[in-house]
Amino acid sequence: MRTQVAIIGAGPAGLLLSQLLHKAGVDCIVLERQSADYVLSRIRAGVIEQVLVDLLDRAGVGARMRREGLVHEGFNIAVEGEVFRIDLRALTGGKTVTVYGQTELTRDLMEAHSARGAAVIYEARDVALHGLESDAPSVTCVKDEAGVHIACDFVAGCDGFHGVSRKSIPESVLQTWERVYPSGWLGVLCDAPPCNEELIYSRHERGFALASMRSHTRSRYYVQVGLDERLEDWPDERFWDEVSRRLGGDVAPRITRAASIEKSIAPLRSFVAEPMRHGRLFLAGDAAHIVPPTGAKGLNLAASDVFYLSQALARYYREGASDGLDSYSARALARVWKAERFSWWFTSMTHQFADMDAFSRRMQRVELDYIRSSRAAAAVVAENYVGLPLD
To answer: Which of 9, 109, 122, 254 fits 15 for a cystine, CB–CB 3.0-4.6 Å?
Structure first.
């Protein structure tokens, strides 16, 4: 097989890149080690920056999101149960975010690929990248017990933190930065109306909590837990008691205690790998960086990577210019590190960690009180939350 760009990973980053390249007339093949059903079963983020909203429109897959997504003009922060609001629209000159589940976004992309007969190889085992430092890279895999060889010009690694792409870069070339937090998020998805029209992030002495949603009838709640916690120790009743306590007395009566339809614990990690290019391989999304979910940046950062990479590849094939490819890593990382900073800071201000002393805990409250009382401080939070400019 032969293509111009081989894309590793059929999550939202890989599928969006494929769709944007298709619009630009660039041929590509997508490989995914899991089944399509498995990819759709993954419960992930749901807060989308305007950057990603615009990209989905540009890719021709934004119609359902426009119909069903929930446009949010602000969000809320609770400090020991006392709630104040960050007015995103007023503080950023009209910018907003859209709540639309990553599962639904992925479904839209899959349907677009199916409608145009795009080449997506699911359940591709033993994926390996070859000749990345040459002018003739290739990808091999096993599909239905048969070997597959794909010759290409470039490889886009969109296969996540545990994928093969980043591991294909020599250790002597790759530099990484990482912080693993001593906590995780216990998340519950349920079919119940949200307790509030906008998200509520809660800083509480017992730990962080978040009231979120996927639609007007489906809610998503989180509480901070230790990494040694087990799902079987968190029956629904215990979870609802804890999230109600942390969100506070004004919010708790509005929580509908429905049966959970999905429950999971996700660890918190900050991670960046540099460079995001090695020869003919380009990393995008979680393959290159991970953020704690507090700032809702993971999916959105993947989208900005894909935007930069699709621009560079389209220009290369349209004009023969390679400057966009050469500057891709630096351009993407400039935005990545700013989002890493915001996610780290917002996590530090709202979570309780065992190594924090009394002074640190007091500083959390002072910092949040400053945001509440200062329009300038609130504007900084809002600017980062809606998403920094692409350039």
So the answer is: 109
